[in-house]
Structure formats: structure tokens, C-alpha cells
Amino acid sequence: MNSESSLPRATGTADVSVRPARPDDAADIARIQLVTWRTAYRAALPAAVLDEWDADAATASWRSAITSPPTPGHGVVVAVERHTVVGFAAFGPAELGPDEEADPAGPTAEVGTLLVEPRWGRRGHGSRLLAAVSDLVRTGGAARMQVWLLDGDRVSAGFYESAGWAPDGWARTLDTGADPLRELRWHALLDDAPTDHAGTTA
Question: Which residue ranges are recorded for the region named Disordered (predicted)?
């Protein structure tokens, strides 16, 4: 599933694309994660997560996710502009919530992380990443997608809403060792989700 041939070619200009992540992308992915968290989520995430960041460990973790995904349904894709990795998305099969029944229409896939480095924002990279993930999981048989967003993260909520997603009523609280983080779950049916690889919303 996470193969070059299975990923549709991104449209737009010749300078931008989305492709499956390669092992040598791991350091860039870890760097983008840290830069984006420190820029956009410093007020929400525990200080220890950001200030005690282990770049080598994060790189190793992402390299493992790329080379040894836990299931065939897991994958990582990257957004590229002018040969520079500027964003990424990780996805996999969704876990059901307590007392939640499986969707009879088909499996649900989850966007675990979708981040674009802030200095490359507003160029459509987020839209292209989301469209590529949607295409990949649809090919793998998924009928629905979901993502957990921090309660109060208006930027991410606006991005997913513009792509046709909506809250589905589920919420969870994460124990971070500091202030708990509350997340809301958003979802989209794949038959209804747009797949505009040349989007410009993120």
C-alpha cells in the first residue's frame, strides 16, 4: 500500500508533489514535527515534550514507521516543494472507541498526524497530503476516515471543515503528566470527501 505505484501523482505545478516517505526523509519529518509543534502548539503541549525533544529518537521512530509499518494499512507520505520535504502525514487503521461498533460500510482509517512546516503553509500542501491519504486508504478498502484534533485548535478544525469533514461527537482526554489534553474526533465518508490534489487551503 505504501508504494510509489499506488500513490496518485499530485497535480499543480511541477515543483510540488506528494510521495511515499523514504527512510532518508525521517530526519526531515522529525524536524518538521518539532518546528510545527513549537510554533503552533507550544501553549497546548506540555513544556517537557518540546524542551526535552530527542531528535535522534524521533528520527529513529519515524524511520521505523516508514520501513517497518505495524500493518499493511499504515503509511507515511511527504509533501515536497522544489526537492524539499515541507510536510508529512501518517495514517493507519482506526481503533474503535469504547462500546463503538464497526461501520458496516467498511473499515475506518485514521490520520495520525498531518503537519506542514509553518514557513511552507498556505501553498496547498496540507490539502494535497490529505487527498493523497484519502486515495490510498480508499484503495485499501476504507469507507471512512477520522482524525483527533485538540479541542480549541481552530486552524486545524477550519482546515478539515473546508475539506468536508465534521465532528462526529466523540471526545477523549489524554493524560500527559501535566495538564490533560482534550481532543475531539472529526470524520469524513470517503465517498463524500473531495480529492483535490491542487488544493490551496493549507
Answer: 1-20
**pLDDT single digits (tens) 177-188:** 667 889 999 999
Residue type, 138: R
Give pTM, 2 decimals.
0.84
At residue 46, the 3 state secondary structure works out as coil
Contact 106, 128 (CB under 8 A): no
- Out of 3.30.1360.120, 3.40.190.290, 3.40.50.1220, 3.40.630.30, the CATH code matching 4-189 is 3.40.630.30
CB 163 within 8 A of CB 188: yes
Q: Do residues 178 and 46 lie in contact, with contact meaning Cβ atoms separated by under 8 Å?
A: yes
Residue tagged 463503538 (cell numbers): 100
- Pick the closest to residue 88 from 22, 152, 180, 176 (CA basis): 22
pLDDT tens across 9-53, in order? Answer: 443 455 899 999 999 999 999 999 999 988 877 666 766 666 778
